[in-house]
Design goal:
The protein is an alpha+beta fold. It has a domain of 78 residues. The protein is built from 6 helices and 13 strands. Strands 1, 2, 3, 4, 5, 6, 7, 8, 9, 10, 11, 12 and 13 form a 13-stranded antiparallel beta sheet that branches. It is flat.
Length: 291
């Protein structure tokens, strides 16, 4: 039996097994590039009691093991280093440093954005499967636009996209915005996948039309490039800020989109202080009417 006949025999069997245990949670496709977020319906590879207990509770609470699949039809993908699990087809892998200047720029970019120093590129025809994990993903199509996101959120995308560092434009956002001096900037046209701290269904996309959005906390994940980001007092006066109990607020102005993760702080609080800490709605301690 030659290789062609053998592949024809094995591949349908592989597809049948894959589709029976895995479902497509999200899918975005272009001319020669397609991204699918796959979800494993359940995990059954248990061979010890401790693992069985962990998997049981994971299944009970709805935790889904996910995997990103990229299909190339002559297109190009760029993927965070270390994320690849396996691939098949006619795909070439490149990771260009661009000499000493390129090496220095790549290392600086890693320091500033928390992304990989070198993002491998995959080009050709075939399928790429990234490492399975319990993380959450958001797929987004950039249409000749720019996205500024938190460091480490970029996961993979089309090769046409430019991934670099974005420096905060004012002192207040750099010092008090809890985002650091640099964030990650993705620019161009193409499909991008972001790794989120919360499920995509719990992310709110706020559309601003020459408006202002004020956020009390550090749960704004990303924004379009035309949105101005600053950190400002909650009121115009220091006395008002002190009595309002809100302090400094992340402020977004302009026309575009801002993605928020309101439940992010909830999970963090439960992890640190337990679910009992959320039994009552938080209130300001600066209430002068309390006896």
């Amino acid at each position: 039996m030659d290789n062609l006949e053998e592949n024809r025999f094995i591949e349908p069997f592989h597809r049948q097994k894959l589709t029976s245990r895995v479902e497509v949670l999200d899918c975005v496709s272009g001319d020669n590039f397609k991204v699918e977020v796959l979800g494993y319906k359940s995990l059954s590879g248990i061979n010890d009691p401790e693992t069985a207990q962990a998997i049981y509770y994971a299944n009970q609470v709805g935790m889904r093991l996910k995997q990103v699949k990229i299909t190339l039809q002559g297109g190009e993908a760029q993927i965070e280093a270390g994320a690849l699990q396996y691939l098949y087809g006619h795909i070439q892998i490149e990771s260009k440093a661009g000499g000493m200047a390129g090496l220095g720029k790549a290392m600086l970019n890693k320091l500033m954005t928390n992304e990989s120093a070198f993002i491998p590129r995959y080009q050709g025809h075939g399928c790429i499967f990234l490492e399975p994990c319990f993380s959450h993903f958001l797929t987004y199509y950039l249409n000749n636009e720019e996205i500024i996101c938190d460091r480490g959120l970029f996961y993979c995308g089309e090769g046409s996209l430019e991934v670099s560092a974005a420096m905060q434009k004012n002192v207040s956002s750099a010092l008090f915005g809890n985002e650091g001096l640099f964030q990650t900037k993705i620019r161009g046209t193409g499909i991008c996948v972001f790794e989120l701290p919360v499920p995509a269904s719990e992310v709110h996309c706020v559309h601003l039309n020459n408006e202002t959005l004020k956020v009390d906390g550090n749960f704004a994940l990303m924004r379009t490039g035309k949105i101005e980001f600053t950190v400002e007092k909650s009121t115009k006066t220091i006395f008002g800020t002190l009595t309002s109990g809100e302090g400094l607020l992340q402020t977004f102005r302009g026309t575009g989109k801002v993605w928020l993760a309101p439940t992010q702080s909830v999970y963090e609080q439960m992890r640190v202080a337990g679910i009992d800490s959320l039994a009552h709605a938080p209130k300001s301690s600066n209430n002068w009417t309390d006896s």
